[in-house]
Design goal:
alpha/beta, elongated, binds NADPH dihydro-nicotinamide-adenine-dinucleotide phosphate, Rossmann fold, Four Helix Bundle (Hemerythrin (Met), subunit A), 8-stranded mixed sheet, 460 residues, binds fe (iii) ion
Amino acid sequence: MGAKEGAVSPHSREESLCIFGTGDLGRSLGHRLFQSGYRVVYGSRRPDSCGPVPQGVLNHAEAAQSSRIIFLCINREHYSFLQALAPQLNGKVLVDVSNNPEKDMFPEANAVYLQRLLPEAYVVKALNTLSAWGLQNGPSDANRQTFICGDSAEAKQAVSEVCTRLGLLVLDRGGVGASRELEDFPLQLFPMWKLPMRIAVGLSGAFFFYLLIRDVIYTYVYEGKDVSFRILVSLANKVFPIVSLIMLALCYLPGVMAALLQLHRGTKYRRFPDWLDRWMLCRKQMGLVALALASLHVLYTLIIPIRYYVRYRIGAGIISQALKNQTTEFFNILAWRTDSYYSMGVLGFALFILLGITSLPSVSNALSWREFSFIQSKLGYVTLFLCTLHGYLYGWDKFLHLYSYKWYTLPGYMLSLVVPTVVLGLKLLLLLPCVDRRLTRIRRGWEHTPQDPSVQKLLI
Ligand SMILES: NC(=O)C1=CN([C@@H]2O[C@H](COP(=O)(O)OP(=O)(O)OC[C@H]3O[C@@H](n4cnc5c(N)ncnc54)[C@H](OP(=O)(O)O)[C@@H]3O)[C@@H](O)[C@H]2O)C=CC1
Ligand SMILES: [Fe+3]
């Protein structure tokens, strides 16, 4: 690679950069480069009629000679014309910014294809995850990152310098072989949110129908009362906390399962099953969906006193007591119960918000790993404990009469308490000193089974 590498020397700010293609991206990129102090020369099929661009336009062959770095703002379908320009492009750094409208449209990645067309050029994949619009608007938090890959370290360095001057954060993803992965990025739509959203929608639907049958249809059939108005607030305010609590517990379940798996295997040098890996990777998104649902629960709870139905019931109750000249006794235990479940809910929600805030990249980047894991793990379990306790205290008296329910008449929140209770129970088990000691030994790599061939491979 030595002689080839030598052709790419570090550039100066005065050096001009070349852009092939005067389309949307070409214009936006040229604009940004120009603003950052670079001279820009465009290469176009129609230099005389391509409309206004920030700086000079030449034909492709002439433009290529003006710069060592050429940004190809052209669709991949048209790359073949570059072969005819091989004499001018050999030894140049060609920046492939292209994307495809669909996944797996071509057998090889665009940058790999370009490198095959022009083996004597240095192909670097970059900028494809940005948009023309974003480039034009200047760097903002959302579109500051750009991934880069290519086989020549010097070529990547030269392109990185330009990107850094544009205010972008460059993340090196390795050789040109990684370009397929980079080209797939813009096609993904919230990939990490898919599983949490599916779980949220699935659980919400299931609990909604269960509660609809139990609270509304059952009452109508057996008592002849139409309470369908309860669907909008009462039912919603049951579904949201139930799903929120289950999803918060599901954030912590894979961690506990991973620990149990390590204990069972007696080693940490073995991969977790794929489904567990995927589950662990989307815990943050799962927690944020749970937080959103918990926030809805808080809002719905706050509007309870202003609901017509509630005001009517309170008013009617007072009038009927006044007419009968009755008073209600004050129950100390009831006061304790309601206050304790409200306070557990408030504290749990406050910690839940803290977990949500610390999971934001700008905040978590400011924390050390120890601080982050203290909040997300230790305080996370405290949050789960408080929220679960909130659920138990809410149904305190009903739990005392659990025997009077059939499985299909159980209140929804009782069902929702199963998953968090299991997670907290397993966590307590893992905190037992003897279990904790063994897990620590396994996680520090002190305990493994060297005779296991897969472990041997990893240890070499
Ligand atoms: N637009 C965006 O937001 C983004 C675009 N990209 C990628 O950038 C590349 C360009 O996209 P965009 O600017 O939107 O596309 P446009 O269609 O707006 O522009 C493409 C340009 O390519 C040139 N061109 C068209 N046909 C040919 C041909 N047969 N031979 C040679 N050159 C040709 C033309 O320039 P001229 O007439 O001057 O020759 C044309 O203006 C694409 O690969 C796209 O995937 C990547 C990230 C974001
Ligand atoms: Fe609640």
